[in-house]
Design brief:
The structure holds two protein chains of two kinds.
Chain A: E1 3-6, E2 10-12, E3 18-25, E4 34-39, E5 45-51, E6 58-60, E7 68-73, E8 78-83, E9 92-99, E10 105-108, E11 112-116
Parallel strand pairs in A: 2-11
Antiparallel strand pairs in A: 1-3, 3-8, 4-5, 4-9, 5-6, 7-8, 9-10, 9-11
Chain B: E1 4-7, E2 10-13, E3 19-25, E4 33-38, E5 45-49, E6 53-54, E7 62-67, E8 70-75, E9 84-90, E10 102-106
Parallel strand pairs in B: 2-10
Antiparallel strand pairs in B: 1-3, 3-8, 4-5, 4-9, 5-6, 7-8, 9-10
């Protein structure tokens, strides 16, 4: 069965960077894009960017341009989200999700809580 | 960016009722509209895409319609397990924005 398993919770200080992993199983990793979406406490879902897992091409939301990097390791069937220059407003649950082909996100990771606090 | 607005923000209904949630886009998105269900502490689950196609395993009491800027999610014969927050998302163009959510409470 399709599974996306994310790395564990992180606590970071303002100005630091965080890298979250998303390991896929149960399907051919390079056949489906991976998106990253975050959700701050009590807030709506916010799309951050996506990666074509086959060729590594990426597209990011302008809101995070310059601070976000999405990469993948096809040998490990794993996608990564790195967010730099963290501030308190980046405290959120970060999700990876598989793109079924029409930019509908059909399988999601369990979420990774990133807390930014001094 | 395309703005997605849902109404109502919350609603309360009884088991067996029919409920409708509206999602409006700030510009035309053709039929590129997805619906998700999210329960507390869990990731969202895809229900419907784009606009009216069912994701595998989604009960037939859920249905979606619309195109252009106006879309609806309808839940027929409401069940206790339908208590959740529902989000629409446009998949027309990046950034793939979400609505603010509609919290559905079962009385």
């Amino acid at each position: 069965q399709v599974q996306l398993v994310q790395s564990g919770a992180e606590v970071k200080k303002p100005g630091a960077s965080v890298k979250v992993s998303c390991e896929a199983s149960g399907y051919t990793f390079s056949s489906y894009a991976i998106h990253w979406v975050r959700q701050a406490p009590g807030q709506r879902l916010e799309w951050m960017g996506w990666i074509n897992t086959d060729n590594g091409n990426t597209k990011y939301s302008q809101r995070f341009q310059g601070r976000v990097t999405i990469t993948r390791d096809t040998s490990a069937s794993t996608a990564y989200l790195e967010l730099s220059s963290l501030r308190s407003e980046d405290t959120a649950v970060y999700y990876c999700a598989r793109d079924e082909g029409l930019t509908a996100l059909d399988f999601w990771g369990q979420g990774t809580l990133v807390t930014v606090s001094s | 960016d395309i703005q997605m607005t849902q109404s109502p923000s919350s609603l309360s209904a009884s088991v067996g009722d029919r409920v409708t949630i509206i999602c409006r886009a700030s510009q035309s998105i053709s039929s590129y509209l997805n619906w998700y269900q999210q329960k507390p502490g869990k990731p969202p689950k895809l229900l419907i895409y784009p606009a009216s196609s069912f994701h595998s395993g989604v009960p037939s009491r859920f249905s979606g319609s619309g195109s252009g800027t106006d879309f609806t999610l309808t839940i027929n014969s409401l069940q206790p397990e339908d208590s959740a927050t529902y989000y629409c998302q446009q998949s027309y163009t990046a950034p793939y924005t979400f609505g603010q959510g509609t919290k559905l409470e079962i009385k």
